[in-house]
Amino acid sequence: MHQKQPPANIAVAAWPTAGVNSSANTKMRRCMKLRYPILPRVKAGAPHWVWGTALMIEDELPWVCIRRTHSRNPVYEWSLVLTAVAIDNEVELVGDTWGLWVHPDQARSAETQLDQYDGENRPVPVRGTPLPTIDSGWLGVAGYLMVIWALPAFASFGLLDPGWRAEGRMQAGLVADGEWWRTVTALTLHADLGHIVANSLFGALFGLFVGRYLGSGFGWLLVLISGALGNALNAWLRPEAFSSIGASTATFAALALGAAFVWRRGYFKGAAWRRSFAPIFGGIALLTFTGVGDGRTDVLAHFAGFGVGLCAGLLAAGFDIRRLGRSGQHISAVLALGLLAVAWNQAVG
Predict the structure, then answer these.
(1) CA distance 268 to 300
(2) For the chain, where are the E strands, in sequence order?
């Protein structure tokens, strides 16, 4: 803080090095003789100052420091509070610590005033909105695992035609030509055992959260639709010959859907902005950590699914899921399974 220097003939009081009380919370004040300018006058065409003299006598009782802080703003705020109630006080900076000093006779009153001020101006915490649990979420997880493991099981028993995988994969050019069902059927296909196991684990984890707060029926219907739309977006951005398979687009849609739903519902409402955005930041972190792999990984599909799921979660959060009831959840589950059945019927029919 820059201070304007007084004229040389003004004697300014300072805390003496001798006579300072040994306690860090007390200090002595001395008398000072102050020569001060009263008002400017004009003499012989040039301005000059008329000076007065005053003797300011301070008491010899040690002043006490009632509050310390490393920030400048709070100490001046406290000083203003005490000044408003006619309590003499001084602010002093020692090193990097600001101190608020008062006369010992007024120390108790000053502390009372500041405590009262703190109590009246303490921010009222805004509690986050609790999220109602729709169901355990395990039924939806079981349905998801059953769907993605059914086709490999059927294929192992020779129940599928040899070209079934080619008929179901997502191929950008064919999707652009109107074969929309490939955006759905591709979600149920996997390249190898490692691929399907990874999607089983992450899909179950993210989908369990979605099922708990959006329901095993409605939540998984949104996951399926978001995954299909993510594949459609991926196909639109890719060259015609590009093709991909895997449930990971829907898996990351589930991750984003849950994160966006929790954030918009205000679960962290009233917290600092970093914490209030924690669900979104967490979803992005998981996407970055698990959604970027080797050259075989379709990273764009992961980001497309995440983006669509984010939008779906924001929209779903504006609706009271409890209004669906059990019947609404059952209908949603039937619609999800029906969409899969229609898509595969179109693919192999």
Answers:
(1) 30
(2) 26-27, 32-43, 46-56, 63-69, 89-94, 97-102, 170-171, 243-244
Output DSSP code: residue 29. Answer: -
Burial 91-121 (b: 16+ CB within 10 A, else e): eeeeeeebbbbbbeebbeebeebbeebeeee
Does residue 130 form part of some domain?
A: no
Packing angle between helix 138-156 and helix 218-237, nearest 10 degrees? 60
Q: Which of 121, 153, 175 is the last residue of a domain?
A: 121
Per-residue model confidence as pLDDT tens digits over 62-100: 788 889 988 888 889 999 999 999 888 888 888 888 989
Tokens of 1: 């803080």
Q: How many domains does the chain have?
A: 2
Strands (DSSP E) along 172-312, which ranges?
A: 243-244
Give the Cβ contact number of residue 261 at 10 Å: 28
| Residue pair 329/219 in contact by the 8 Å Cβ criterion | no
Contacts of 90 (CB under 8 A, 6+ apart): 63, 79, 100, 101, 102
Q: What is the mean pLDDT of residues 187-206?
A: 92
Find the mean pLDDT for residues 167-196: 93
Tell whether 198 and 236 lie within a shared domain: yes
Rg, Å, the chain Cα set = 36
